[in-house]
Amino acid sequence: MIKRLLLVLGIAGTSQAMVFDNRFLLLYLKPFTRRCDALSHVRVQPFFMHADRAFSDIDMSIPDINGLYDQRVLAQALVDTGHPQSLRSDFRLRTCIPWARHGRLDAQGIAFLYEQSLTPWLSAGVDMAFAHVAMRHQFALSGAEEQLPPGDKEYLLQAKEAMHQQLGLRPALFSKTLFGDVDLYLRFGSIWDYTLKFRRIDASVKFGVYVPSATARDLDNPAAIPLGGDKHWGVYGGFESEWELKEDLSIGLMFRAIKRLKKTQQLRIPLLTEPQEYGVLVGPVEVDPGWTFVFNPSVDTAHLRRGLGLKAGYTLVAHLKDTYSDCRPTDFRKKFPGNLVKHDSSWGAEYITIGAYYDFEKVYECPSLYPKISLYWDIPVNWLVSKRAAKTTSVSLMFELDF
After folding, report:
1. In degrees rounded to 5, what are phi and psi of residue 179?
2. At what angle do helices 150-166 and 71-80 cross, to 10 degrees?
3. CB atoms inside a 10 Å sphere around CB 383
4. Residue 144 pLDDT
5. CB 352 within 8 Å of CB 384
6. Which of 15, 62, 66, 230 sits CB 3.0–4.6 Å from 128 for a disulfide?
């Protein structure tokens, strides 16, 4: 048992994890059916993701999750912090100079899950992933400013770029191979046959820790996004179950509560109402992330034709508001109070998952030697809680083996 546990921890030391509490990248754990005669499980999952819009009360672009970009507001914030005026007098008289930002997110990577049975009722596991993530923001004048003469449009574009240089920002283009957070967990549970009028019940509770091995978000790149929890340790607890109603028809239910721990880190701080990634102030901020709750029911129909089966599920993720505490020196806070209180960091996402699989263990003898191959499509929907999260579509191919 000790050797098996050390093997799990050794793999975790060099690998990274899939998480639920990320508003940009959906890499959600797909439930799997455990077998009484082979309780250990390994899974390899290549995936591809794409998004160009975000959830909101109205359709919005991904960059607008952190607020609308108003060049007039950003110019005034720079002036208030001692920078030279960046706009001509005629544009300073305008109430608003809005820029529409169009964003596109693409990611390709691979995830890995390994769960080792230690006893019939206890297992230790690790989730891990790494991905190449590309994100870009494109600017275009909106509203009445779209009708400006070409010379004025070019002037505003150059003035915008000059303001970004004053802030020390690079162009909003992000392309990097990233590692996520390591997810280590223990599962306590059991499997009961012919209980409570069900053919089979598999119920367990999981307790896990997110190790913040993912790279922190780059403050000087407005398009940068984290793959993990932005260097916050995390803990979670949850319940997972699968209920076989009749032969080849099962329903599943998963619930998880996640809490990232507070941490003091350098952040951009909006002075007025500029988007947080363009905040004119930079300083230490204590961030206490809100709770994240996950709810996932699913249904599985097996043996449609030999080892062929279909699976469908619904995933709801609700992240509560984060708490920010400005840790800058008192005199700086009085002079430049910042606008952290108004930053609304709560978000929600919902997805429908459609999958098909072929289970070779249902076809051949010596089933523990044969894998299950699955193809999943995660589709974003806006039914209950979706807001301020990227509408990320994901396709993943999974190879699973029980032993």
Report:
1. -105, 145
2. 40
3. 9
4. 78
5. no
6. 15
Angle at 218 (CA atoms; ends 217, 223), nearest 5 degrees: 90
Residue 235 three-state SS: strand
Task: Report the SS3 class of residue 126.
Answer: strand
Sole residue written with tokens 């089966």: 309
Contact 23, 388 (CB under 8 A): yes
Compute the distance between CA of residue 64 and CA of residue 70 in angstroms, rounded to an integer.
11
Cα distance between residue 69 and residue 75, in whole Å: 11
Cβ 103 vs Cβ 140: under 8 Å: no
* DSSP conformational letter for 60: B
CATH number of the domain within which 124 lies:
2.40.160.40
pLDDT for residue 18: 56
CA 42 → CA 45, 126, 168, 308, distances in Å? 10, 10, 45, 20
* Residue 56, beta-bridge partner list: none
The low-confidence residues of the chain, meaning pLDDT below 50, are: 1-17
DSSP letter string over 293-333?
Answer: EEEEEEEEEEEEETTEEEEEEEEEEEEPPPEEEE-S-HHHH
Which residues make Cβ contacts (< 8 Å) with residue 89, sequence separation at least 6? none
Range(s) of the domain holding residue 196 = 2-402
**With a threshold of 0.85, does the pTM exceed it?**
yes
Rounded distance, CA 214 to CA 20, Å?
14
Take residue 74 and report the two structure tokens written for it: 């950003």
DSSP state of 403: -
Segment (H or E) for 71 = helix 71-80
CA-angle at 230, arms to 261 and 23, nearest 5°: 100
What one-character-per-residue DSSP string does 17-59 give? B--S--SS---PPPP---BTTB--EEEEEEEEEEES-B-SSS-
How many residues in the chain?
A: 403
| Strand, helix or coil for residue 382 | coil
- CA angle at residue 67 from 63 to 70, to 5 degrees? 95
